[in-house]
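Per-record layout

source: Emticicia aquatilis
name: Four helix bundle protein
length: 127
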Amino acid sequence: MKSFTELEVYKVCRNLRKLISDLVKNRFPDNEKYKLSDQIIRSSRSITANIAEGFGRYYYKENIQFCRMARGSLNETLEHLIVAFDEKYIDDQELLKMKIEIDSCGKLLNGYINSLKSLQKPKEEDQ
């Protein structure tokens, strides 16, 4: 592949990022603009940003590390959605819909990480 934009994992995570952005714009109150809204936007953007940065790294091991950070941001995004649910900014159906999207992203990220691990050269594992 020539670009991270061709990766299926990137495409699915990008879709999640756009869904999160729309949800925040339409459902979160203005008083959360610099609190929860900002945190969830940043964590969802971090998912795709880490995939992109990892793709640009020379070693598979570095790419894997950035994908692990993306996975961390994915879980952080879920936590922010749970807070939004607890604060009654979103309902259980919206939380469930987002959780399904997040689970899909997580599975693809794990698959991508495993694929990268299988491509690693033995010498690279030590670096």
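summary: The CA atoms of residues 60 and 116 lie 6 Å apart. The chain has one domain: 7-126.
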